[in-house]
Amino acid sequence: MIEDAVDSALYDDDPVVRDRARQKIAQQANSPTIIALIQCLDAPQRLTRRRAAAILSDIPPSRGRPELVAALRNRDLPVRSRVAVARILVSQADGIEPALEEGFMDPEPRVRRACTTPLTPRPCLMRALMDADREVVARSAQALLILEVQVELSILRGAVQKLEEVPAPLIRLLARWSTETSALSGFAEVGVEAALDHLRDREELRGLMASEPVTAAWGLSRIGDAESKSVSDADPRIRSAWARSAVLSNEELNTLKDDTDAAVRWYARRALSGDYSVEVLSQRLQPHTQSSSPSARPPYGLRPDDVLPVVERVHAAVGLCQARFDINLGVAMRSAEAAGLEAVYFVGRGDYVRSPSRGADLAIPVHHREDAAALIRTARHEGYQIVAIQQTAGSVPYHLADYPPNPLFVVGAEDVGMPGDLREAADLNVEIPQFGIIDSLNVATALTVVLFHWRVHRES
User: Fold this and answer.
1) Closest CA to 18 of 29, 5, 31
2) Which residue among 44, 117, 374, 382 has the highest number of C-beta atoms inside a 10 angstrom radius?
3) Which burial class, exposed, middle or buried, applies to 263 when counting CB atoms under 10 A from its CB (0-12, 13-18, 19+)?
4) Residues 209-238: pLDDT tens digits?
5) How do residues 411-455 score in pLDDT, each as one tens digit?
């Protein structure tokens, strides 16, 4: 029954049991169940509140949104619950979330703060700039910065004048839209970083050449002020600014291509090849083809009801031998799927929590093997060659290795690594050179580094 699943998801000591119960609730939750979970958002125990919020976030908006919106409107609910509901609506939103407008009528500042996000209707964000709560003002300014929404200068000045202490996001928003005014003069002259970071006014930037020459040079180069260019300045940071700009002639860039500073030479070479042209830079603002993937929609990751596209996978796999932490299992599974592999093998541990994988297990088969010997036999039977990612006296740096055609990449436990018989049975042992004091990388991180290095070079 769904009630039993709620109890298990909230209170069971076994994380795998809780995870499976969450999946069941996400698929079967009804209105009474959702209302009961919303009531748990104000439970005395913090852990219960966190689990209830996580469960509600998993429920598809088509099933749970009406109850969440009603809860946000309900002033009789505790403030803590209304705040949590607002955050859940934000986590599930796929674009502007109209329900957040309800939160701006809430007398409690904490609720208004939770409703102030880039997904908030833009008229609400504009009004929030004049809110009585300084944090709401800061959040609305930050959201408008992210959205790159132009705000009238009169509104921004009014918001600044209203506050005794102006939050940095509001100064940044003022800087973003004050290109033709001196609205930022006071902030920039006293070295306020928020003003310096966004300053775009030509005259103000020129005025900073003495006190903030690097900031001024990069700002002037960005707006294309050819009159101010100084390609022979003694400071390589300033020469870099002009090499990166679009105002230099090929003759000037060819001179900088032979500069004494490596960074200046690098910028000049790229500029000569057209990497900073308007056409090339505009491509950075276009969506990637991967943005159409079902996993790219809030709350992000794959869900059981998603229609998955067919992917051509390579004859390769990943094995995790005695890994203990769910985050490592989930990240490794996600990396294996993203790299287009065909299978994942968990050795020793057969259960796992799905959440960290973001639904990758719905797209790639996950198998269990009892011990290292069973994994070795599987590798031989399936035609894999074992690549052990492990620091040993005989390991080869991963970027210099001669990889086999059908690798099974294996990592060991977080503390003791992998068993000796698996190291001996491996057809190749690779390691990631370390350049700092820390002796090794996290298990899932190390696997991901090696995996994608191999995958990219396999295609070349």
Assistant:
1) 5
2) 117
3) middle
4) 888 899 889 989 988 888 888 888 999 999
5) 987 777 778 888 888 999 999 999 998 888 888 889 999 999 999
Omega before residue 294 within 30° of 0, cis:
no
Predicted local confidence at residue 23, as pLDDT:
84
Q: How far apart are CA 129 and CA 141, in angstroms?
A: 7
106-122 pLDDT, tens per residue?
999 999 999 999 999 99
Which amino acid is located at 209 in the chain?
A: M
Under DSSP, is residue 401 helix (H, G, I), strand (E, B) or coil? coil
- Distances in Å between the Cα of 280 and the Cα atoms of 50, 186, 230, 265, 291 are 45, 36, 25, 20, 20
Cα–Cα distance measured from residue 402 to residue 16, given in angstroms and rounded to the nearest whole number = 39
CATH number of the 312-458 domain = 3.40.1280.10
User: Which residues share a beta bridge with 417?
Assistant: 413
Model confidence at 178, in pLDDT bands (50, 70, 90)?
A: low
Q: How far apart are CA 371 and CA 292, in angstroms?
A: 39
Confirm if 100 and 90 have CB atoms less than 8 A apart: yes
Alpha-carbon gap, residue 93 to 100, rounded angstroms: 10
* Tokens at 272, concatenated: 């000569």
Model-level pTM? 0.67
pLDDT higher than threshold 60 for residue 182? no
Rg (CA), the chain: 28
Written as six digits, the tokens of 228 are 């101010």
Our measurement of the distance from residue 10's CA atom to the centroid of its chain's CA atoms, rounded to an integer in Å, reads: 27
pLDDT digits (tens, 9 = 90+) for 104-161: 889 999 999 999 999 999 999 999 999 999 999 999 999 998 888 888 888 888 888 8
Domain boundaries, the chain: 2-115, 201-279, 312-458
Q: Buried (b) or exposed (e) across 411-446, using 16+ Cβ within 10 A?
A: bbbeeebbbeebbebbebbbbbeeeeeeeeeebbbb
Helix (H) or strand (E) holding 344: strand 343-347
Burial of 13 (0-12, 13-18, 19+ CB in 10 A): exposed
CB of 194 closer than 8 Å to CB of 171? yes
